Amino acid sequence: MFKPIPVAIGLRYLRAKRRNGFISFISLASILGIALGVAALITTLAVMSGFQQEIRDRMLQMAAHATVSAFGEPLDNWQQAVDLALTDPRVAGAAPYVEKEALLNGPRQQPAMVRGVVPADERTVSVLGDKMVAGTLESLVPGEFNIVLGRELAAWLGVGVGDKVVMTIAEFNSTPVGAMPRVKRFNVSGIFEVGYNEYDRSMAFTSMSDMQRLMRLGDGVTGVRLRLVDMNQAWDVARDLATKLGGLQVSDWTTDNANMFRALKMEKTLMAILLSLIIAMGAFNLVSSQVMLVTDKQADIAIMRTFGLSPKGVMQVFMVQGSLIGVIGTVLGVVGGIVLTLNLENILFAIERVFGVSLLPEDVYYITGLPTDLKPEDVLSITAVALVMAFLATIYPAWRAARTPPAEALRYE
Hints:
By secondary structure, the protein is of the alpha+beta class. It has two domains: 5-57 and 260-410, no CATH class; 64-255, no CATH class. The protein has 15 helices and ten strands. The protein has helices spanning 5-15, 21-62, 78-86, 119-122, 151-157, 197-200, 208-215, 234-245, 253-256, 258-296, 298-306, 311-342, 344-355, 376-402, 406-410, and strands at 66-69, 91-105, 109-117, 132-135, 146-150, 164-175, 178-192, 203-207, 223-228, 249-252. 35% of the residues are buried.
């Protein structure tokens, strides 16, 4: 006979036809509840991870992996910083920049962050040159006072390529009539679209030389932006460069956007907790089905006890049977969740075609697809949580079965 005996009996109970069909239904509901909870949790976390990665990638197309600056003061030895950064094999590109918040005036007004760049250097640290929808980045020639606007910003200003905008910055000149802000007319020579609202609506680019003249910085710059081979090394690389240069401020993409990433992480965590309640409901159904099974098998328990099976053995019988239900539900949920995640975008397109609707219209959302990022560690964590819940759900019914007195159970048989 198959050994150990409690495992054999537990497997037999799992395969055997039950006289009480309602118990079978509750057991099936437990399996489906656990499976649906696991599948929903896997798919939801994959979608949230996909959106988080998509937002991060779009942001880092334009944002520097690391930035070195001089604590709010002009950085005068920027060329040395660039040359020193490029000697580090971990650095893929380095570019100086001058940045200032300004008020732009066209037919309408809109504040924006204006960044003065060197086009050739800027291409080594961002994809701005590849995101131009009108004009070119190379139009930012020193002395011509050209400006490149984000597509949303241009729309809010009501201007296009060939139009003019007036830039006003909070740097004051002394005049006979008092202090006056610095004002300069710029020619719109290009429009870009990154697909990330922070840049498309709030950023403008011009020549670094023109910004230096407007802000009267001489040869100084705001800082040096770095793009790395591995962006996860951003802090270490920037810190090493600041140490070599001495007394400079260092920041990286994780600290510059810490609030956004914390919010995304918190949202993902809260969603995982809420969806875990579905798995918990499946585990609760498992408790109910096991309690009913123990009640239905009172006579069988008494017979097993009279044949010498210990209370511990009886407890093992029902823990094996209940745990197998949890394992089956978890496996079905993992397989279903992975299959659903891998085909989610095709399912979305099918729904749009069948019902004639657009769930993610291009004129509303920057991300028109449904990005997913199926992480093995998430799947393993969800699997472990589901199995633990299922195992814990079997303890009380099994303990109750072990306490069944044989004589009382057989009295009316």
